[in-house]
Amino acid sequence: MTDSSTLIPTLKKYFGFDSFRNQQEEIINTVLEQKDCLVIMPTGGGKSICFQLPALMFSGITLVISPLIALMKDQVDGLRANGIEADYFNSSQAGEEQQEILEKVVTSKLKLLYVAPESLGALENILKEAYISCVAIDEAHCISSWGHDFRPSYQQLSFLKRSLPNTPVIALTATADKATRQDIIDQLQIPNAKQFITSFDRKNIGLEVRPANDRVNQIIDFIAQRPNQSGIIYCLSRKSTEQLKDRLQSKGIDAHAYHAGLNFEERTKVQEDFIFDKTQVVCATVAFGMGIDKSNVRWVIHYNMPKNLEGYYQEIGRAGRDGTKAKALLFHSYADVLQLRRFIDGTTNEQLQVAKLDRMKQFSEATSCRRKILLSYFGELLAKNCGNCDICKNPPQFFNGTVIAQKALSVITRLRQSESMGVIIDVLRGAKNATTLDKHYDQLPSYGIGNDIAWKDWQHYIIQLIDQGYCEIAFHKHNALQLTHFSREVLFNGQQVQMTKPIERNVQIEEQKEKTKKSKKKDTLFERLRLLRLKISLEENIPAYLIFSDATLKEIEAERPMSEAEFKQISGVGQRKMEVYGDEFIAEINAFMAEKKKKTKKSDTAKVTYEMYKKGMSIEAIAEARDLKAPTVFSHLSKLYSEGKEIDMYQFVTKEEVISVKNAKKELNSPEGLKPYFDHFNEELEYSKIRLALTILDRENR
């Protein structure tokens, strides 16, 4: 086992970290002992270091199997930024470029080589133990036929162990249940691989689910509260991504669409602009994100409900990879459930997919800690509520909804269990539309019995009845709502039904806006550092987060290092980054501190004037002692008086002059600035006296 005294300095020098996370050190030691291993670690949990650091200690090269060209390029750029020799090999490169890379392998000039599984055939001559010290297989769930990203080329990787029997293989993925884990081990022919399964809990991601009512405006508000933050919005269809992108752009939001309908060049541009912080928001289908290692995605929104919890977990994991606070917002609607069921109908594994969709639906409609539900799905139990989901922060208020339930079930009965939710709500509310009138539903005794409840609220209540088993959706009968054996208990035997009221979002939005205002005020240095990072990234043509992550910038903001030694103590600052970027960032911190000091002096100058005034000094004496002009001293006194300081303003302006200014204010209809008053008084009343009079009037009004 390698000594920590060797590993930690290497970790700090190249990656800028002072300690390992989770099970990283044990995994690294297992690889260095040339043993196979399977690593299940959440997105942002530090999987890459588990093979990148051992690569630095092996004599040969570490071959990394990676699914997407963009992901390879991103990882290679990050390694080079840390001073590590790395490259990638794929079909997008010319033959001459590929030959140069192979030459680097043979001459031991590379420590890591990234390659797509489809390109392995072209590496036949270097797949020898003389060159390859380790094989890392990223996104290993692609190997498994049980996995949710089935990829045939991954299933042919078993030849690697046959070709390199003594070379350790490390397979890594963010999500894999028991069946998938076993499938990966079998397919790769690594039966003795040690399994490392770290916590799936991403504590830094706040989870929230909202009803999909007016979701576009909710999204616009959400983004407005997070200026300069990168985010992804996942939609079910190409059409939705385009429509949403257009709506956001119409509100001045820098948004672009990404889907399979765009050509390769268009998709590449959207992805690269997002990676380089040139685009703030991407509206995308689920194809987007797997190839992105962007650490400063601050939020992910699901415009539609995902089809299963594996997909949801993978997609929200693209936010907050740097470990700082991030947000996952899911919009849930009855229409999404119906659409996803239509997608599933007739598929070969329909039963399995329906079960997974049901778990997704239960998560969306939960009234208990969402993180507990999510983690339990992956076999991890959380002892306490997380405190960082919408349910924990705003626990739902239950009430006796028996009468509401009876009204809904009564209408379902009257309609002979043959109509969908929309028609049932229309009958409850007494709607006069074509369906209710043509079918004579307006003649039913139950017609209009729920007209005191809004349409969207009825939807909220009926979904709860479905969740609690008091009625069910007959998907094979045009989504008709039907009764269950529990329905009779409510309708005829007085069984009570507990419900939750719909959540009003407006108050929460206003509270969030207030929080955003406050955060804007205290993030000044962070914003300056962020802009410097962006400038350097554009000059060097690498993504901004590869220079420093948001987490590193926040630590710099908090610690404010003023020397190279202090700067190097920041987590995420390695030797090369200190040498390349240290001077510029330290200079920016110094400039910020100097400006702050200057502003502080400026704000303190009025306090000095006040201390002199309290000692009984005249305006002329204060002005002379401080080398100021008299009007400046008067402006200090006005400011201090408006802040509540005890100053006898009538020493400097008469009551008659104050009354004159008051009358002028009415006559001039509260003009902006002092000039209109000065003109009104034919330049006979001094500016300083006008200012003092207005200050007195303002304080009296308050």
Average residue-wise pLDDT: 87
Major β-sheet annotation: 7 strands, parallel
Structural class: alpha/beta
Tell me the distance between the termini: 73 Å
Number of helices: 31
CATH structural fold name of the largest domain: Rossmann fold
Q: Strand order within the widest sheet? A: 3-4-2-5-6-1-7
Assembly category: single chain
Please state roughly what percent of the residues sit in beta strands, choosing from under 5%, 5-15%, 15-25%, 25-35%, 35-45% or over 45%.
5-15%
Tell me the overall shape: flat
Helix fraction bin: 40-55%
DSSP strand count: 17
* CATH homology superfamily of the largest domain: P-loop containing nucleotide triphosphate hydrolases
Tell me the name of the CATH class of the largest domain.
Alpha Beta
The CATH architecture of the largest domain: 3-Layer(aba) Sandwich
Overall number of structural domains: 5
Low-confidence stretches: 507-521
Protein name: DNA helicase RecQ
Pfam families: DEAD (PF00270), Helicase_C (PF00271), HRDC (PF00570), HTH_40 (PF14493), RecQ_Zn_bind (PF16124), RQC (PF09382)
GO molecular function: helicase activity
InterPro entries: DEAD/DEAH_box_helicase_dom, DNA_helicase_ATP-dep_RecQ, DNA_helicase_ATP-dep_RecQ_bac, Helicase_ATP-bd, Helicase_C-like, Helicase_HTH, HRDC-like_sf, HRDC_dom
